[in-house]
Amino acid sequence: MLPTVNIDWAWTLSRKLPSDMEQGHVVIEELVQALEKSDWEGRDLFQVRMAVEEGIVNSIEHGNKRDTTKFIQVEFKVSPTFCFIRITDEGAGFCRSALRDCTDDDLLEKPRGRGVHLIENLMSEVFYSECGNQLTMFRKRNDPKLAIAKD
Amino acid sequence: MSTKRRIVVAENGPVSVVRFVDKKIVDSASIEMLGEELNSLVLVDKCSVLLLNFEGVEFMSSAALNKLISLNSKLKAVQGRLKLCNLRAEIKEVFTITRLDRVFDIRKSEIDALEAFSL
To answer: In total, how many domains does chain A have?
Structure first.
């Protein structure tokens, strides 16, 4: 369960966007600015940016299949310690369990699944809706669970 | 050498040292262009020893990683060699998380990478 109930959010955004990554980058920049205003920096800031970038790209490209008549809904919440992100598309949804691990030797150099793998390794909690067209993720700042990956 | 807009290439002996124009490699059109320019280094300009210097690159998406994988394949096909250097810690960690640090030879600095080429 996402611990969002008792958090005093410093900034929130809820917006419906066309299936256009340029519009996606506008809201990502707004999110980054809000995080910086709440003193997020360095690794935490980089990793949230990466997760939201990959999430929105997946929603537009794989969810809505770049159909310009379809939209995505984004919901962002930022506090000095937590960041909440929800991205919903109008696609048919995807089945997470059907997606193989992109770090398997035979898939290592294939293009699919790397975004999902990154999201799941950069955020504190990640959830998909039952029909697979909504991604909800939560990041705790300096989360000890997300230890620095060793060489 | 063919015209490049997303990269700057300098020759250091047999090594073509590539730097990136964009600090943030996220825009899909720019990533497509980047991929084409990297591939053309191998296919058109016949460069076979490449060093990608990431100095100044603050952020890149997984779509950009795919272009690096494609470049690596092109180089393997011509028995070429590829190294990466000067990755900021957060980007290096992305390579580790995705296990792409096993695919690419990542060196700390340009000097380290150039020395490794000559070994």
So the answer is: 1
Nearest CA in chain B to A42: B90
In a domain, A5, yes or no: no
Q: Is the pTM of this model over 0.80?
A: yes
Q: How far apart are CA B37 and CA B41, in angstroms?
A: 6
pLDDT band at B119 (very low <50, low <70, confident <90, very high): low
CB A128 within 8 A of CB A96: yes
Domain limits at A57?
A: 11-144
Position of tokens 């020395």? B115
Angle between helices A114-122 and B89-97 (to 10 degrees): 120
Q: Does A58 touch chain B (CB under 8 A)?
A: no
**pLDDT tier, A54 (very low <50, low <70, confident <90, very high otherwise):** very high
Contact B90 A43 (CB under 8 A): yes
Q: How far apart are CA B119 and CA B113, in angstroms?
A: 10
Task: State how far residue A22 is from chain B, nearest Cα, in angstroms.
Answer: 8
A126 bridge partner residues: A137
Whether A3 is covered by a domain: the verdict is no
pLDDT score, position A145:
85
Predicted local distance difference test score (pLDDT) of residue A150: 59
User: How far B38 CA sits from the closest chain A CA (Å)?
Assistant: 17
Nearest CA to B71 out of B101, B104, B99 is that of B104
CATH classification at residue A132:
3.30.565.10
CA dist A85 and B103 (Å) reads 31
* Continuous segment of H or E residues that includes residue A31: helix A21-37
Confirm whether A151 is domain-assigned: no
What residue in A sits closest to B104 (Cα-Cα)?
A: A109
B97–A149 C-beta distance less than 8 A: yes
